[in-house]
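Obj: model holo form, ligand = 2-oxoglutaric acid.
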Amino acid sequence: MGDIDPSFIREPECRPQHTLNEEGIPVIDLSGMSDPSAIGEIVKAIGNACKEWGFFQVINHGTEESHAKVDAVSRKFFNLNKDEKNKVRRDIVQVMGYYDSEHTQNSKDWKESYEFVVEEPTLMPLSIDLNDNQIYEWNNKWPQNPPEFREVCKEYAKVMETLAFKLLEYIFMSLGLPPKRFHEFFKGHQSSFVKINYYPPCPSPDLVLGCGPHKDTGALVILPQDDVGGLEVRRQSDGEWVKVKPIPGAYVVNVGDVVQVWSNDAYQSVEHRVVVNSKKERLSTPFSLQVPHFTVVEPLEEFTNAENPPKYKPYNWGKFLAKKKFANFQKIEGESIQIKHFKIY
Ligand SMILES: O=C(O)CCC(=O)C(=O)O
Ligand SMILES: [Fe+2]
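Output (holo structure tokens):
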């Protein structure tokens, strides 16, 4: 056993063995985005990827420069000493900022993160109590150091938001819906955020996970990563863990729980995790597109009828997210809130 704190060590059955090197996750070229005659092919490829994997990679998305800047400034930030990083540490009141002890599945993840909301402030329910209508503000805690951190991050968020909307339009088109069908859900204050994940090298990578198995809760995630690798996706056909090969300049994209519910299970939000290694640090900078807190998430009427009734009960997005965040701050008994708790059949 390596010399690591026991709180990071996973139960033997949850450790990262038996991963496949399969290269099945589709890579989709977006260079035709501005050519109306190319959109059909892109939409078809995205639809097939969503059905088979819930994941795909995109290349030629046109945002490489902004990503390179956020990658560079993030490495500078995470290389600062702990005291400096702790100046922007998140807490149970201001949940955005720096942290280093996230629990997924009740074991600590081998990583540090910095999280910020795209809209400042982002409005959220004060409590998880369904009868409590009080709202409070999620604000960002921006570090003074590196000095360019805030500006670079804000620019990155703007660029990624535009790309995320475009990709969600394609996803809706692939479901046979008008591309702008989802725009009504993003009126008012959306709750999108960016999470910068830094995975230090680990002396015992076979005992820990950088990020435990989870599904993303929002609508859509765009996940740029560096060239180290470590992201793994649960293959829907047989439940095997499959490595996602880093491709220079490519972004991983996955649909989240909200698209699963909207589409009444036509598309699945797929489980994924991160393994670490003993030699190299790794950085990823996912952008999560999320609806405003007051949104009631439920299967869209286009996917339900008498023969195919809704598979989920409606749920309030803000309360769901608040509950999820709360679970991040403590080791809780049982599992945290998930969409399966709203499943009807
Ligand atoms: O670092 C990664 O590649 C994945 C991180 C992730 O899944 C998340 O932050 O939700
Ligand atoms: Fe994730």
